[in-house]
Every structure is written in structure tokens, then in C-alpha cells.
Amino acid sequence: MAIEEPRYRQILNVLSHRVETGQYPLEERLPTESDLCGEFGASRFTVREALRRLVDDGMVQRRKGAGSIVVATKPATRYVHSLSSLADLSQFALNTHYDLVKRERVRIDADRAGAIRAKPGSTWWRVRGLRRGRPGGSVLCYVHSYIPLRLSRFVGQLDADIVPFHAYLSRRADEAIVEVEQELYGEPMNKDVAAHLRQKTGTISLCALRRYTGRKGTIIASYNWHVAQDFHYRMKLSRNS
């Protein structure tokens, strides 16, 4: 069953389309928050979140005394992912669109085995996909998700309607996630990664490797490759009192 997009995201998609098609021209002001609340039947908080995303995308600027002004017809390629809790890892999946590329069984080599906590030479599922800011939008990252064979019966259901994958697998398999690890590192793109990100082979990527582990071992481990210059992680951690 498809998961309905958050209300602010629905409004954002409409406003972005209007900007891209010139319905809201460059250097012109968007309708006021009150007008947008009335049009969409949404709260001021929801409308403000949609407008904030337009600002983050570089399409709109807030100008004192002038309101929200259109400054670009396309979103900027740079994507900022703010992380302050485990829930924010799921939010990235919920706030982006996933396009399935391929599901396949692969044999895990020694180098990959250590990273995903697999036995060298074992066979796992690999699900390849692309994440975009919105359907048909620019690619934010190319993803390889590795899933152990014990969860094979759920792999066929992983697509754009199932997000985030780790939460779905944990729930369906009744395996609670007890640990999450994330590694960030830069590496040159191989031919496959470069082709899907539309870059030259050897271009530096920012790779985020995330492992979700239950009592029986790895539930899913995902490599997320981004064009390094177009992606920024912002992390804020607070000590418990």
C-alpha cells in the first residue's frame, strides 16, 4: 500500500511546479502565507514548512518587507541533510523519492563482507536504486542495499512505496533494530556509480554506509553515494541531562 506524502511535501510539489513553469515568475512575490493556507486548506505551520523547503532548494528567498521572492526556476543541486537523531535517518527516506533500479543476488567478496558484517563468499540480496528530491527530479544519491537471505521473502516488496526499508524489514521480520552504525567517507566513483550519478568515472563521491543490526545480525546495510560537492551533512547532538 502506498504511503501518502506529508501535506507540506504535497504543497511544496505544487509550488515548485508553479515556479518551474513560470506561473510564479522570477523576481515576483509568492502569495502570502494566509493566501496559501486558504488555497490548500492547510495550517500556517504546514505552509511555512513548504516555503522553508523552497528556500532550502534555492528557488525562493525571504526578503524583509517583501515576502517570499522567486529567485530561480530550478532547485539547486546541493542537498543538506540535517541529522540530530536516529529518526532523522528515516526522515531522509520519507522526504525523498526512490526509483528501483534492480534486485539481484550477489556473492559477497572479502572487502564487502567486513563492511556489511557478512561471511565472505556468502550470497546476499542487493537492491539498487536512485533517490531524488521529488519524482522525476535530479538524483540525490545512488543506493546499494544489502539484505541477508533470511529476509528473502520481503525483498520483492521493496520499492518506492516501502520507505524506509530498514523499518519495513524490521517490522515484517519481527527483528527489532538494536544498533545503527553510519560511516561517512570520500571515494572515487567507479563506472557504475558514475553512470547513475551522471558524472565522470573517478569523480569524488561522499559515501554514507549505514548498517541496521538486530539480534540475528545485519537486517540491511546500505551504501549511499552522493556527488561530494553537491551534498552536505549537518549533525547536531545534545547530551542528555
CATH architecture of the largest domain, by name, is: 3-Layer(aba) Sandwich
Q: Which structural class should the secondary elements be placed in? A: alpha+beta
Low-confidence stretches: none
User: Largest beta sheet: what is the strand line-up?
Assistant: 4-5-6-9-8-7
Q: Mean pLDDT, rounded to whole units? A: 86
Structure description:
It is a single chain. By secondary structure, this protein is an alpha+beta fold. The chain has 2 domains: 64 residues, Winged helix-like DNA-binding domain superfamily/Winged helix DNA-binding domain (Arc Repressor Mutant, subunit A), CATH 1.10.10.10; 157 residues, Chorismate lyase-like (Chorismate lyase, 3-Layer(aba) Sandwich), CATH 3.40.1410.10. It contains 8 helices and 10 strands. Strands 4-5-6-9-8-7 form a 6-stranded antiparallel β-sheet. A two-stranded antiparallel sheet has the order 1-2. A two-stranded parallel sheet has the order 3-10. Strand 8 and strand 9 form a beta hairpin. Helix 1 crosses helix 3 and helix 2 crosses helix 3. The longest helix is centred in the N-terminal third of the chain and has 14 residues. It is elongated and about 60 Å long. The termini are far apart.
Quick synopsis:
The protein is 29% helix and 34% strand. The chain is of the alpha+beta class. The model has no long low-confidence stretch (mean pLDDT 86).
Supply the key terms.
Chorismate lyase; elongated; 241 residues; Arc Repressor Mutant, subunit A; 29% helix; six-stranded antiparallel sheet; two-stranded antiparallel sheet; single chain
